[in-house]
Design a protein that fits this description.
Layout lengths: L2 H17 L4 H6 L7 E2 L5 E5 L4 H6 L6 H12 L8 E4 L13 H18 L3 E5 L1 H7 L5 H4 L4 E5 L2 E8 L2 H6 L1 H11 L2 H9 L1
Parallel strand pairs: 2-3, 2-4, 4-6
Antiparallel strand pairs: 1-3, 5-6
């Protein structure tokens, strides 16, 4: 499949969200839909929880302080943003950066799964507990961070590695090295799955 085909499918998915008015209340107070960004053929998809203020303004995920830290970790792991795909569960910024509500996450889940079906990554990296809960329900991030697990959702099979959210490491310096150490496992995991 040509890259333009996958990108076209991702664009159509975004249009579908707009036309179906998914989470109309969220949309009404957001600047725009923040669908995701990156390589439509990425081996790795990073999934956060929802756009923040800066992401809402610019229409791109993870471009604030947490995004800058994500870029540093990508570089340390020998990767570039252009090699991966980055998105969130919820595609609109919640008011005042509150946590996404369960109903909001549930409304966007089918679209997230379609996004992953289009991209077909080898590894899904969840960033923080909100995205982790989709793939590894009932787990505590403190127990499962940095551990890859095989997950099946709606007949889609994913290799998932939960990580702490980069923002958590900005607020809690003790998590910073843990997150970096976990992050550095990602390239080896992809190589193992590619072999």
């Amino acid at each position: 499949m040509a890259a333009t085909d996958r990108q076209r499918q991702l664009d159509e998915l975004a249009q579908d969200i707009l036309e179906k008015e998914v989470c109309a209340d969220l949309r009404a107070q957001a600047t725009q839909l923040v669908m995701g960004e990156g390589n439509a053929f990425a081996d790795i998809v990073f999934i956060g929880e929802a756009p923040g203020k800066k992401e809402d303004i610019e229409g791109k995920p993870f471009i604030g302080a947490a995004g800058k830290f994500l870029n540093v970790m990508l570089e340390q792991a020998g990767m570039d943003r252009s090699d991966v795909y980055i998105t969130n569960i919820v595609k609109y910024r919640p008011p005042n950066n509150r946590d996404p509500l369960p109903a909001e996450k549930a409304a966007f889940l089918p679209y997230l799964l379609r996004q992953l079906a289009i991209i077909q990554p080898k590894v899904v990296i969840t960033l923080g507990r909100h995205s982790m809960e989709y793939f590894v329900p009932g787990a505590k991030i403190g127990d499962v961070h940095g551990v890859a697990v095989n997950v099946v959702i709606d007949n889609h099979e994913f290799m998932v590695m939960p990580l702490y959210h980069p923002a958590a490491a900005l607020y809690n310096g003790g998590l910073r090295q843990t997150l970096i150490d976990d992050f550095l496992k990602v390239p080896d995991l992809v190589k193992t799955l590619s072999a």
